[in-house]
Design goal:
This protein has about 230 residues and is α/β, with parallel strands linked by helices. The chain has one domain: P-loop containing nucleotide triphosphate hydrolases (Rossmann fold, 3-Layer(aba) Sandwich). About 35% of the residues lie in helices and about 30% in strands. The chain is built from 7 helices and 10 strands. The chain has a 6-stranded mixed sheet with strand order 6-7-8-3-9-10, with helices on both faces. The protein has a 4-stranded antiparallel sheet with strand order 2-1-4-5, with helices on one face. β7, α6 and β8 form a beta-alpha-beta unit. The radius of gyration is 17 Å and the shape is globular. The protein starts with a strand and ends with a strand. The protein binds adenosine-5'-triphosphate and magnesium ion.
Length: about 230
């Protein structure tokens, strides 16, 4: 089977005036289709940097990255955005919902940009909201939803494009522990029932425990790769 993600000798150097920060210092690993992977490690170890590379939000300084068989490390601009739209779904710690828009509209938004007709858009957005247990809150705006409910809407929004890979950086970082469990159960169900490859960054070991595999970063290096 072909890896969903194949990263080799990836480095990322940030320049801060005269100072160079080696955020990634030569990282290599594969992730197979359908895996559920957690990335852990101390603050500043390069987790978000790595996620930004995996998510095609930024490009590495050196190294290669094949996403679903396609070399993407050297893509720029629109080509990179296209890969993101076709293959990836994103969930963030701070939900990143639009203020004042009802849940249904939030989830429809990515499809509006891609020109999906209205009726089809509604249909798919409803299905996605039902999958995350928000079928009865479709008209609620973010201010009328709890943190956990807002994160569910964000997950639904990430799902409507039928991504091959779902990327989440600290998705439970702003949630209490009971709500975190509910969100992790949704990720687990999406992984098991729909076969979506999931990669998430977390500080919390009990969140990482939902993954099948745990990668540990330290000082820009992958220092441990273990089955859970
Ligand atoms: N845009 C940037 N410009 C300059 N340096 C950066 C930038 N982004 C990250 N860094 C540096 O790169 C290193 C890795 O940062 P990164 O955000 O990947 O860490 P992290 O593991 O996600 O940490 P945290 O757990 O606190 O979120 C840090 O030393 C950070 O200061
Ligand atoms: Mg981070």
């Amino acid at each position: 089977m072909r890896p969903m993600i194949a990263i080799r000798d990836m480095t990322k150097v940030y320049h801060m005036g005269d100072i160079e920060v080696g955020a990634l210092q030569g990282v290599s690993f594969d992730i197979m289709p359908g895996e559920f992977v957690a990335i852990i490690g101390p603050s500043g170890s390069g987790k978000s940097t790595l996620m930004n590379m995996i998510g095609c939000l930024d490009v590495p300084t050196a190294g290669s990255y094949a996403l679903d068989g396609e070399e993407v490390a050297s893509l720029v601009g629109d080509d990179l955005s296209l890969v993101r739209a076709r293959k990836l779904g994103f969930v963030f710690q701070q939900y990143m919902l639009l203020p004042r828009q009802p849940a249904l509209r939030q989830v429809e938004m990515p499809m509006i940009y891609r020109g999906v007709p209205t009726v089809e858009r509604h249909r798919r957005a409803k299905i996605a909201l039902e999958i995350v247990g928000m079928g009865n809150r479709m008209d609620h705006k973010p201010t009328e939803l709890s943190g956990g409910q807002q994160q569910r809407v964000a997950i639904a929004r990430a799902l409507v494009g039928s991504p091959a890979v779902l990327l989440a950086d600290e998705p439970t970082g702003a949630l209490d522990s009971k709500t975190s469990v509910e969100i992790m159960q949704i990720f687990q169900r999406l992984n098991r029932e729909q076969g979506i490859t999931i990669i998430l960054v977390t500080h919390e070991l009990d969140v990482a425990a939902y993954a099948q595999r745990i990668l540990t970063m330290r000082d820009g290096l992958l220092v441990e790769d273990r089955r859970n």
